[in-house]
Write a structure and sequence with these properties.
By secondary structure, the protein is α+β, with helices and mostly antiparallel strands. Among the domains are: about 140 residues, no CATH class; about 100 residues, no CATH class. Helix content is about 40%, strand content about 20%. The chain contains 14 helices and 9 strands. The chain has a 9-stranded mixed sheet with strand order 3-2-1-4-5-9-8-7-6, with helices on both faces. Strand 4, helix 8 and strand 5 form a beta-alpha-beta unit. Helix 2 crosses helix 3. The longest helix has 25 residues. The chain starts with a helix and ends with a helix. The relative contact order is 0.14. The mean pLDDT is about 90.
């Protein structure tokens, strides 16, 4: 295969179930076709198969990837079912490492779970399938994921995922669900720092931070920074307060390496200048943060949600009706491979095109698809 050596190096040894005993159709090449079709923004196996059967695309696959035969539609599903999701995820994480910068110091790893809504009431799934994801915010790359069968299992799953990642000197940001002492320790043990959102599941901690900030926000011990943005008549002001003074935080010692606490006041005004929203958010961190740093990491927490949005809007993941859970997991990983390739292409080429336009151009121009894929 001429132009995909780096990618296939990591995916060629993906583990398949025992019932795969050397079928005529090659699993690795089938995965490659699905990845290429996903880069083109095709939302399901049927569309990818239809695309791959086009004479121009068949010639493209033959000339550049040594794929001489496209499996029939039913074989696409069968081969994806044979792939072991855990093994595919390991291959994915191994490949992603080749895309990362040499130094990740201070970069943000945003972590959160996503429910695949189409698995609700799936006869082969007792609970809605949840995928816990780790996303490198500044580069727009998914680092890895772990599947769980219930939202309540996201907390230990996130710890397991952190242990699998190489995130030394990064800053892990997560929502209030994962504001847990064990999770904080896991992050520190991984050589990273944390910035965790604090809500009512840590009621006493939240109250201590709230009182501390409100009573001392004008003192020299509290750093303050604000930003203002306007969009379509709506104005948003974000005011951050950060302090390294933990004297009023009860039980601060139980939070591994806790170094600072902070709050962000988010004010939204409509086009008439009327206040329509006034929210407070509270945080703990193992880094001694200035207020502008707290604002940055809090905003970067939403990068993983952007990736979730792409999966739903560009790939209609929540409407994927495939009943086999392993195929659902495998397709989730493949979609992230495609998104990583497109995001990496945007970074390396300094392209100003939207992800959707890059995908559309890949669909209508195989030469452009090859250019985008070459960064993998």
């Amino acid at each position: 295969m001429k132009n995909n050596k780096k990618l296939t190096k990591h995916f060629e040894n993906v583990e398949c179930r025992k019932e795969h005993n050397g079928y005529k159709c090659n699993v690795g090449r089938t995965l490659l076709i699905v990845i290429l079709g996903s880069i083109c923004g095709l939302r399901n196996i049927s569309l990818i198969h239809e695309w791959a059967m086009n004479p121009t695309v068949k010639k493209f696959l033959w000339e550049h990837f040594d794929i001489y035969e496209v499996p029939c539609h039913s074989w696409f599903r069968k081969l994806l079912k044979l792939v072991v999701p855990k093994s595919l995820n390991e291959c994915f994480m191994s490949w992603v490492k080749t895309l990362l910068p040499e130094s990740m110091d201070g970069l943000t790893v945003s972590m959160d779970g996503k429910a695949i809504c189409s698995t609700w009431k799936n006869k082969n799934c007792e609970e809605t399938l949840h995928i816990v994801n780790a996303h490198l915010a500044e580069w727009g790359l998914t680092l890895g994921q772990k599947a769980v069968d219930a939202k309540s299992n996201e907390i230990p799953a996130m710890r397991d995922l952190i242990e699998l990642l190489e995130i030394q000197n990064c800053v892990v940001v997560a929502d209030a669900l994962n504001c847990q002492t064990k999770t904080a320790k896991t992050i520190i043990d991984a050589g990273a720092d944390y910035v965790l959102n604090v809500k009512d599941n840590q009621e006493l901690l939240k109250a201590d931070i709230e009182n501390h900030v409100q009573n001392n926000k004008l003192s020299n011990n509290v750093d303050i920074h604000s930003t203002e943005e306007s969009n379509r008549g709506r104005r948003e002001i974000r005011i951050a307060f950060s302090t390294n003074d933990l004297s009023n935080i009860a039980n601060s010692a139980k939070w591994n390496s806790l170094a600072s606490v902070g709050a962000i006041n988010r004010l939204i005004f409509n086009k008439n200048g009327e206040l329509v929203s006034n929210e407070w958010h509270y945080y703990i961190s193992s880094k001694k943060l200035f207020a502008h740093e707290l604002l940055k990491y809090a905003r970067n927490e939403w990068s993983v949600e952007t990736m979730h949005w792409f999966l739903d809007v560009h790939f209609s993941e929540d409407f994927c009706r495939i009943e086999d859970i392993d195929v659902q997991k495998n397709l989730n990983i493949i979609r992230k491979v495609a998104l990583n390739i497109v995001k990496n292409y945007k970074t390396k080429s300094n392209s100003k095109k939207a992800v959707s336009k890059i995908m559309l151009n890949c669909l209508i121009d195989t030469d452009y698809l090859l250019e985008v894929f070459s960064v993998a």
